[in-house]
Write a structure and sequence with these properties.
Elements (H helix, E strand, L loop, with lengths): L3 H14 L4 H5 L11 H20 L17
Helix pairs in contact: 1-3
Length: 74
């Protein structure tokens, strides 16, 4: 379960974004949510997966690219 759950999400994102032009991947459908582009969603999934496995399970330091006041602060 621990390994298959991220695999499911990775394959879903891969399938939904297949063939998408880089410009389209960087364009947010809502101007009020600039980080909700396809590229932003992929980046968010990567950060969440990193935190779950490397920080929570392995006890490594969190070296995420966010600030303490940003939307991704823990």
């Amino acid at each position: 379960m621990l390994g298959s759950w991220p695999d499911l999400h990775r394959s879903t994102v891969r399938e939904k974004s297949a063939g998408l032009a880089p410009r389209s991947a960087a364009t947010a459908p809502l101007p009020t949510s600039p980080s909700m582009s396809v590229g932003g969603v992929v980046a968010r999934l990567r950060r969440v997966e990193h935190f779950w496995f490397e920080v929570d399970l392995l006890g490594l330091l969190d070296q995420g690219p966010y600030t303490l006041v940003g939307p991704d602060a823990h």
